[in-house]
Structure formats: structure tokens, C-alpha cells
Amino acid sequence: xxxxxxxxxxxxxxxxxxxxxxxxxxxxxxxxxxxxxxxxxxxxxxxxxxxxxxxxxxxxxxxxxxxxxxxxxxxxxxxxxxxxxxxxxxxxxxxxxxxxxxxxxxxxxxxxxxxxxxxxxxxxxxxxxxxxxxxxxxxxxxxxxxxxxxxxxxxxxxxxxxxxxxxxxxxxxxxxxxxxxxxxxxxxxxxxxxxxxxxxxxxxxxxxxxxxxxxxxxxxxxxxxxxxxxxxxxxxxxxxxxxxxxxxxxxxxxxxxxxxxxxxxxxxxxxxxxxxxxxxxx
Length: 282
Description:
Blueprint: E1 2-4, E2 10-14, E3 17-21, H1 25-37, E4 45-50, H2 55-60, E5 68-73, H3 76-85, H4 87-90, E6 98-102, H5 105-111, E7 117-123, H6 137-146, E8 147-156, H7 164-177, E9 182-188, E10 196-203, H8 220-230, H9 234-237, E11 239-243, H10 247-251, H11 254-257, E12 262-266, H12 271-281
Parallel strand pairs: 4-5, 4-7, 5-6, 7-8, 11-12
Antiparallel strand pairs: 1-2, 2-3, 8-10, 9-10
């Protein structure tokens, strides 16, 4: 289902669960993509499991070193709906490096030759029904086998506020399988349950991967050119959410207020959230 909301623009809902909105989708797409790809030098071959809306493809395409992007999405309707109603998200499908396969991601990975990919990004729905397999040990074993030595995986890993039992199982499985780094990261996405979502970041045995220290930054000029071409998240480029309780602090500083960033004063945000968001801008 797709509907128009008063605050978040168009909203995509699958099986009664919000998948993305026009306003905050970039928070998820950017994190699940750039955390792994910025952590290894010169990635060339990337596999996306799920991600039928095209947002992860859009972000992967920002890396000029990428030569091949495979995506396996089980539901072709998601792809078609995204192209029709969310063209700024689905624009990733237009990249000539992309090969789309409609089918079961679990089966696709089992058939993938060993050591094929530099990175595997698993943009899955919640572990219910067919998606349950994407959170289990055999699937992670297939991912590790398909990665080159020192290759990386990033997978959607639920919310620490709601799903600690699921996260504990994911962490346990990944620590048994991935002999490089195993890390948990998270980001805020206002329209997701609890307002946040987590990611598992793992690497295979080989060259050391430190997810906390990027080694492959996106070229700033290329990035800005890409954003201008695709009109990605223009609302969020022009504004930042800031907690109401620190409004006086910001307005008393001419330096902070002259940046041209539009501030949205929100009463229920924590001070930590607002300051962190602002520091990211600076």
C-alpha cells in the first residue's frame, strides 16, 4: 500500500508495516550502504539482497569504484510500485552497473560462486515469514562464502529497544561465522518502531576491517553532483531537527544561526539527539 501523509510525504507499507517514507528514507539507505562500503578500499562487486525499492542501489551507485551491482528481490511488485510512486528512490535501477534478479535471495546466495563479492548488503524486512531465513545461521554462512577475504556484510538488525532477543541471536551467529570484525550499529529513523533501526556489520577473515574508521570516503564533488542529479532527500538537506529545550542556545549564537540550515524545533527530542544532529552538519 502507498498513501500520502501530511508530514512524511508518500509512505510505502508492506503487510501492515511501514517500509519507507519520502522524508526519512535516506537515513536508513545511507547507513546500511555506506557503513560497509566506506570501510573497505576500492569495492568493486556488490550484492544487495532485498532492497526492491531501489534506495540501496542509489547509494551504492555513488561509489565510483563499483563495477558490478547485483540485486535479488523476491517481490517484483515492490520494484514496480517504487518506480511508479518513489522515483527518487527507485532511480538506482537506472544505473547500467545494476543487474536485477527476481527470486529468493537465500537460493541466489547458495548458488553464488565462492569469493564473488566485496560486499553483501541485506536490506530485509522483519524476520517474519519468508524473511525469517535471512536472519538464520545457514544464510550468514552463505554470505560469508560469497564474500572475498576481508569482504563485508551489512544487514538490517532490528531495534535494541524492541528486539534484543533477535539481536542476541544474530550477534551469536555472526560471531561464529565471520572471523574478521563483528559490530552492531544503529541510526534514527523517525517512522520506524522505536524511532531507530540497527545494523550488523561483519567482515570475513583477511585484511583487517575497522568499521569505526572509514578508509574509502565518498568523493565530495562526485557526491554533490550525484545528489543534484537525483534530487535525493532535498528536504533533509535543507533542515535539521533540534530539541526545543536548546533553542535559546542556538539563537544566541550568530555563528550557528548563519549557516543557512533551516532548524525545526521539536519538543520531544532529547538534547543528545539535537546536538549530535547539529554537529553532523558542522
